Amino acid sequence: MAESLLATPWAVAIDPARRDGRILETGTEPERPAEFSPLPSGLDPGLRQALTDAGIERLYRHQAEVYDSARDGNVIITTGTASGKSLAFNLGVLDTIAKDPKARALYLYPTKALAQDQARAITAIRAPGLRPAIYDGDTPKEERPAIRRRSNLVLTNPDMLHVGILPHHRNWGDFLSNLEWIVIDEAHTYRGVFGSNVANVIRRLRRIARAYGREPRFVLASATIANPEELAGRLVGGEFTLVDDDTAPRAAREIDLWNPPLTNPATGARRSALAEAGDLLAELVSHEIRTICFLRSRRGIELIRKFAAERLESKAKPDLAAKIAPYRAGYTPAQRRGIEADLVAGKLLGVVSTDALELGIDIGELDAAICVTFPGTVAGLRQMWGRAGRRRNGLAVYIAGQDALDQYFCRHPDEFLGRPVEAAILDHRSTEIAAQHLVAAAYEMPLTTEDEDLFGPDLDESTGPLVTAGELRRAGQGLVPRRPGFVAASVSLRSSSASSVSVVDRTSGEVIGAVELGRAFTTVHPGAVYMHFGTTYEVEQLDLDEARAVVRPFDDEWYTRPRVETEILIDRTIETARLHGVELRFGEVSVSDQVTGYQRILSADQEAIDLIDLDLPVQEFRTKGLWYTLPERATGGLPLNALLGALHATEHAQIAVLPLIAMCDRWDIGGLSTNLHAQTGEPTIFIYDGHPGGIGITRRGFDEFARLVRDAHDLIAECPCDGGCPSCVQSPKCGNLNEPLFKQGALELLGSMGV
User: Fold this and answer.
1) What CA–CA distance (Å, rounded) separates 31 from 389?
2) pTM score, two decimals?
């Protein structure tokens, strides 16, 4: 174990955990000096002066490399947090605008908050001729015509491009006719279903730009990922030059791997990671160490903030408790902007956030970053850690949960700290996703064979089913939508649901939040416990016709977990393989989910109180997945209940380790195991992409199935529990509430596959 950085202000807060063994491993990232280059000689003189006035008299070497490479073609830059990526892509754009008043540039950001933050930074440079403007859903309608006419640098997001710009491109004729640059920031966020949708939106943008006579250059900026050039090609199309040598200075950073203590060695139960995080956050804040704490769960961040506040109040420091705020999607824009401003101004000492603040929003200097449970990717984890110690020594802490993957990392701390970042996965050709965008593109301009280089050489094959289904019709030499109406409005980029459910507080009548329709049955079903801004609510009613969930304040000490019944039908086998007697297949499947009830669970000891039935509609979707049948020699000796438990435990373990292969987390994946599937006639395990159409996750699992089997076996075999626990075969998302499970049987099944 490496020693903690010396003379650090956080030592008193974390040393108790170091002494009692909760900190398993400590690593350090050393300080790194900067490497500089002069400002390019060909810069516009007015821009050179503006940069000098802003205190920029030289560049980091990688910034100069981006400027040089972007003059010749498309570029993707992948360097660390706070490495100056914004200036790297701004420089060429600002130089073009300074030299050509007619030139236009379009910037895409994944969030409104990031666009607003970057607009402030660009404006501060005072570049000559620059007329920037934000164009998103919050832009007043009366201001939009002037922005389209006058602004030469427009900052927006993929959603607004999708529904507010491309379908109305005739209003943007002058802008598109002079479009020189397209910048896509935080490109690593465009993966999975979101990235697959955005890749289609970018192709629609390129198509419309061509119609106005333009082929703009692209500059992409990303966190470090394993496949930046591949991601850029899939997202945009075409060839990209990679700039990945980070030459910015970096302060030293201490990294601690923290495992909560066991509370029951026999069952593998550990103290809640949320409670551990709340205590650590309180300790750091009590020493006025500015801290950000990340967790993917919206409910979880509310609990961490609550636990930290209670800890500070018990230490007679209620004034500090008021200096911790939660931050997540579902808050109003005004609420989020207020939290961001308070962070920058130093009014807050702590913030508990979902990954909404993982991105490059300027929230001032922070001393410590805590990541609670594995966020799904090493790339995301490093982005979060990068929030701490940008300008002086920082502390980064990973607090493991009981989840199987978290505990796998705790058993392999050296591998975890040195683990390389993953490849970002997206599939812009996903049938369901691409079909929606083909109809949207046809609304913008008739589809013809000339569009095949953007949408694929089999355009006739892709559009044929849409013609048959009555979505498209032939008009002249092209295809147009058959139905009237605004096509893009029905296509959601960020989820499989195009709409959301409003959450309404019955006592005040106020809309306090929103939940995607696809998540409503599991999140705001009747009786569900829902958290918002530190307050707990119980759902009284879910009205699907009104898209509204009515809640009331709630103060009992339990939470809820839905029970979901799943059925799978095999639609088409795309590829087959054989591994040690296992028949392995990859293809298209139809999934039916129904929430049939929910469990109430005590927050203190995680014990279930009862199970309450529900009657909610079935949700159906088609996706891609892998499945395999097991030979009788592997299963024949097991009684029925043991066989069901062994299959179920094997399914859980493989889903748990699939994120080690694909850039995803277990919430992106679904599974089903059965002793007798109607179509295979044998014991079968399914693992499928949890998004309609599939996005390439289980394809990676199929391609590396031997590794999937080996990692799942190691995960279970190394766990010291007796009969299966949350650290090996239990799953927090199991629709069957983790029943039945048979740990030893899973080891035997996986062993029969040649491990």
Assistant:
1) 11
2) 0.81
